[in-house]
Amino acid sequence: MTARTPDSARDIPEATVARLPVYLRALTGLAEDGTTTCSSEELAASAGVNSAKLRKDLSYLGSYGTRGVGYDVEYLRYQIAREIGVTQDWPVVIVGIGNLGHALANYSGFRSRGFRVVALLDADPDRHTDVVAGLEVRSFEDLETIVAEHDVSIGVIATPAVAAQSVADRMVASGITSILNFAPTVLTAPEGVDVRKVDLSIELQILAYHEQRKAGAIETEVLS
Amino acid sequence: MTARTPDSARDIPEATVARLPVYLRALTGLAEDGTTTCSSEELAASAGVNSAKLRKDLSYLGSYGTRGVGYDVEYLRYQIAREIGVTQDWPVVIVGIGNLGHALANYSGFRSRGFRVVALLDADPDRHTDVVAGLEVRSFEDLETIVAEHDVSIGVIATPAVAAQSVADRMVASGITSILNFAPTVLTAPEGVDVRKVDLSIELQILAYHEQRKAGAIETEVLS
DNA sequence: CTTTGTGAATCAGTTCACAGCA
DNA sequence: TGCTGTGAACTGATTCACAAAG
């Protein structure tokens, strides 16, 4: 056993991991503006966080700044990209090519950030003639073949809620170990398989909650 | 001043607020299955959380359960819906009718959860002839009129990143106080305006980070 | 006897404030 | 002198474990 855990084996807090992509995007923006160096204050402003949090977050990756100066934009950008793992190319399959699946297939932000959509699958044979984002929509039955062929470890679910769990089960069986779920349902997956969800209507409901309280506060003000 | 803050003025932790929509969905599912009563254990399982957390969350709303028995599904569902504010109808405008805007306009989960899309706006005149989800795509210039006419307080941004901040500014100026941002950029808004973001590629990047570490762990195992 | 509702304990995340280095 | 990197203090969220209620 070495005294220090080597390389990228340090454990980074979940909250920090969730912000690294934001910093990466901010740094890309600064680089495009021709900025070569930035302080924690400037980068924090572009990323929409406070500078103490930014510095603490970066400290989990290592000491990539220079005291009295700041950070080299390009160097830091590379270090964060490497830490996240987006310097390599991740093949991805999307299952469920309805409105949302369409939008995801065409989303350029995946391609530009190290993700390559290798296949679009749908259970409905009527969709198998479609070509979306330059890819033919294929049968869900082809999942195993595609996963094996392209060594896919990340799957995206954009099916209706009722189909989502069975799609997830089949993904796991075929060897996928990370799932991004857009279907409005809770998925269960075995230990070792990561599931993240994006729920469009939940975010709106959270806004509605706060909006309702604003209205309440105004009423209270008027009454007082 | 009363000793106890009245009605819904109690303050509920942010983490709890974010889970209430999940409980609401789980309860709707149970109700559809014909379940009339459930324990915290059962509801927690449907929502994908542990039962202690569920009970603590519900305790912020009030005492809606019966000791020794559990919760009445329909009654609890209504109480949570009321607390979130989705018993009323929230008019919403969507700006940016590209692939994602299309998908959002057609998303049935909004309608069924108390949100009514009253207008689709786009800056591109070529899109103004389109009809999406039964609504004509209108000019972004109509924003103020529509917000005033329908008393809109929630706006959804699905434009490219470069346009997002100016759309947000214009929304705020027109009276919108809650914004859901799908554009991959950090928005700034004045005090009193809530902004939430949904970033499709950030979620994938978080999965990639964990996926990369799994691969690393396997390598370490092989070496040891 | 079962299951809720909740103080107390624990754990994670954020902010503060300043020592240490360029 | 200026800005990073980080212990220490603080704040918020989660989990535990049990008293209170039906």
Automatic annotation (TrEMBL), chains A, B:
<keyword id="KW-0963">Cytoplasm</keyword>
<dbReference type="GO" id="GO:0005737">
    <property type="term" value="C:cytoplasm"/>
</dbReference>
<dbReference type="InterPro" id="IPR036291">
    <property type="entry name" value="NAD(P)-bd_dom_sf"/>
</dbReference>
<comment type="subunit">
    <text>Homodimer.</text>
</comment>
<keyword id="KW-0804">Transcription</keyword>
<comment type="similarity">
    <text>Belongs to the transcriptional regulatory Rex family.</text>
</comment>
<dbReference type="GO" id="GO:0045892">
    <property type="term" value="P:negative regulation of DNA-templated transcription"/>
</dbReference>
<dbReference type="InterPro" id="IPR036390">
    <property type="entry name" value="WH_DNA-bd_sf"/>
</dbReference>
<dbReference type="InterPro" id="IPR022876">
    <property type="entry name" value="Tscrpt_rep_Rex"/>
</dbReference>
<comment type="function">
    <text>Modulates transcription in response to changes in cellular NADH/NAD(+) redox state.</text>
</comment>
<dbReference type="Pfam" id="PF02629">
    <property type="entry name" value="CoA_binding"/>
</dbReference>
<keyword id="KW-0805">Transcription regulation</keyword>
<keyword id="KW-0238">DNA-binding</keyword>
<keyword id="KW-0678">Repressor</keyword>
<dbReference type="GO" id="GO:0003677">
    <property type="term" value="F:DNA binding"/>
</dbReference>
<protein>
    <recommendedName>
        <fullName>Redox-sensing transcriptional repressor Rex</fullName>
    </recommendedName>
</protein>
<keyword id="KW-0520">NAD</keyword>
<feature type="DNA-binding region" description="H-T-H motif">
    <location>
        <begin position="22"/>
        <end position="61"/>
    </location>
</feature>
<dbReference type="InterPro" id="IPR058236">
    <property type="entry name" value="Rex_actinobacterial-type"/>
</dbReference>
<feature type="binding site">
    <location>
        <begin position="96"/>
        <end position="101"/>
    </location>
    <ligand>
        <name>NAD(+)</name>
    </ligand>
</feature>
<dbReference type="InterPro" id="IPR036388">
    <property type="entry name" value="WH-like_DNA-bd_sf"/>
</dbReference>
<dbReference type="InterPro" id="IPR009718">
    <property type="entry name" value="Rex_DNA-bd_C_dom"/>
</dbReference>
<dbReference type="GO" id="GO:0003700">
    <property type="term" value="F:DNA-binding transcription factor activity"/>
</dbReference>
<dbReference type="InterPro" id="IPR003781">
    <property type="entry name" value="CoA-bd"/>
</dbReference>
<feature type="domain" description="CoA-binding">
    <location>
        <begin position="85"/>
        <end position="186"/>
    </location>
</feature>
<dbReference type="GO" id="GO:0051775">
    <property type="term" value="P:response to redox state"/>
</dbReference>
<dbReference type="Pfam" id="PF06971">
    <property type="entry name" value="Put_DNA-bind_N"/>
</dbReference>
